User: Which sequence fits this backbone?
């Protein structure tokens, strides 16, 4: 078993740079047996245990002062079952490796988020999602899971086997055990035609229900201080494949979306008064385009500008009202917001603490570039989200606690009862879980 040290003086930091932790030690187990040993050894030493992925969560959900478990040696494609149409992967596998491996086999996940840097286990544990009318989060595509629980034993679950564990552990917040292997449903690889198009904010709000109903995957970005959005509609297509030409892709996705956007963020940070003008220019930078490609090339793109994010799921029917209120707050408060607001949707699912558990949802995400004060904006946005029974993304900044969360999750008690059973001594505890789930 190898041990690694991260960062300066053993300090672990997340991608957004807003969370740091000093684990007592780090372990990178190479097998389930080594992992189980590490959990037992931590118990003997009176230490808590926390597996991390790639640190892409903005909350302190992955932070620990106990034993930090690194995932890299528990990764790789374990099995592809073409009869069952499933793929089984090690928990530490990064989504990009999974997507590429599946594409080589002529297969794909059905839906995914904006990036593919995360580990599969990290992504599912916080409920990572993209946008979809019928298709839900990455966790909603799971068929089976294997975990090492607090006493070091191995537990497998699926719809048929330990169904009460399966219901909760697909989005387990790292609180129920350490996921070692995940089996996902896959499909024959398919083509998506993406239509990206600027649209007035008022039109998107007026037509939101139609835009959602007419598209398999609808999302949009609203640029605060402007009446402009960029919309994206992804729908399955018979082809032919028509990728974004390489040079055009570089200009639009790297130069404009990342490079020029980064410079605009720097200018905005140095001189906040310029932000509304910059926002008006940014909102016009990208023009309409249509392309057809395999799913991961349409759903995901690199994010090189570092930021901090808050995202809430609200009932889909409340989305337009929430956005109107958010616009009013930005207009009246004097806040200067240089980052677009992202809006996506998901159908209701059956996972205990999924942000879409039992409810058709719209996700509304607010961002600020790393290094700029975000509290005032996020506090104002959170006030609106919570007034609409919003459920915070488990991996994105929020201030909610167990009392609030037990009100917006009808099955909250089911999750905490399972946690009491699987982790009575709170081996997987950290400050974040104490806050959101209770002691
Ligand atoms: C640039 C960027 C883009 C993003 N885009 C999206 C998006 O489109 N949609 C979305 O929903 N979210 C998005 N996120 C959020 C991100 O997907 C989640 O925070 C995700 O959990 C990060 O995965 P990770 O591998 O980095 O896990 P980490 O952040 O390292 O860990 C997250 C949680 O998973 C737990 N965990 C990790 N491994 C295991 C394991 N083996 N067993 C049990 N628990 C485990 C950790 O303990 C922790 O509780 C984005 C974040 C960034 C920074």
Assistant:
């Amino acid at each position: 078993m190898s041990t690694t040290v991260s960062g300066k003086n053993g300090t672990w930091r997340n991608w957004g740079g807003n969370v740091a932790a000093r684990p007592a030690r780090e372990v990178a187990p190479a097998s389930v047996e080594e992992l189980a040993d590490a959990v037992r050894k931590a118990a003997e030493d009176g230490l808590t245990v926390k597996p991390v992925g790639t640190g892409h969560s903005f909350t302190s959900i992955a932070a620990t002062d106990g034993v930090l478990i690194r995932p890299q040696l528990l990764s790789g494609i374990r099995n592809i079952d073409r009869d069952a149409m499933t793929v089984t992967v090690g928990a530490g596998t990064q989504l990009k490796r999974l997507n590429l491996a599946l594409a080589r086999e002529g297969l794909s996940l059905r839906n995914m988020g904006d990036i593919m840097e995360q580990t599969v286990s990290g992504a599912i544990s916080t409920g990572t999602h993209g946008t979809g009318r019928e298709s839900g989060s990455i966790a909603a595509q799971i068929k089976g899971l294997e975990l090492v629980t607090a006493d070091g034993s191995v537990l497998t679950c699926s719809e048929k086997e330990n169904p009460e564990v399966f219901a909760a552990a697909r989005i387990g917040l790292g609180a129920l055990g350490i996921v070692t292997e995940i089996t996902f449903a896959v499909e024959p690889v398919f083509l998506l035609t993406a239509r990206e198009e600027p649209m007035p904010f008022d039109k998107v709000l007026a037509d939101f229900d139609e835009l959602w109903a007419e598209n398999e995957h609808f999302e949009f970005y609203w640029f605060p201080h402007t009446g402009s959005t960029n919309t994206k509609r992804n729908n399955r297509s018979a082809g032919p494949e028509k990728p974004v030409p390489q040079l055009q892709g570089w200009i639009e996705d790297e130069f404009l979306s990342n490079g020029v956007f980064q410079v605009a963020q720097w200018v905005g940070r140095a001189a906040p008064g310029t932000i509304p003008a910059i926002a008006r220019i940014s909102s016009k930078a990208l023009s309409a385009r249509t392309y057809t490609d395999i799913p991961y090339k349409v759903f995901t793109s690199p994010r090189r500008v570092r930021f901090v994010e808050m995202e809430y799921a609200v009932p889909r029917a409340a989305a337009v009202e929430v956005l109107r209120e958010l616009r009013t707050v930005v207009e009246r408060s004097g806040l200067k917001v240089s980052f677009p607001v992202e809006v996506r949707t998901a159908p209701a699912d059956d996972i205990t603490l999924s942000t879409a558990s039992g409810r058709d949802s719209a996700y509304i995400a607010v961002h600020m570039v790393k290094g700029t004060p975000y509290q005032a904006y996020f506090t104002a946005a959170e006030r609106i989200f919570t007034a609409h029974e919003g459920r915070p993304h488990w991996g994105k900044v929020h201030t909610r606690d167990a009392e609030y969360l037990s009100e917006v999750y009808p099955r909250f008690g089911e999750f905490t009862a399972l946690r009491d059973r699987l982790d009575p001594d709170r081996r997987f505890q950290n400050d974040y879980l104490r806050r959101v789930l209770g002691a």
Observations:
- The first strand starts at residue 12 and ends at 13.
- Residues 15, 50-57, 61-62, 71, 91, 113-115, 118-119, 121-123, 125-126, 128-130, 173-174, 178-179, 303, 393, 395 surround flavin-adenine dinucleotide (CB under 6 Å).
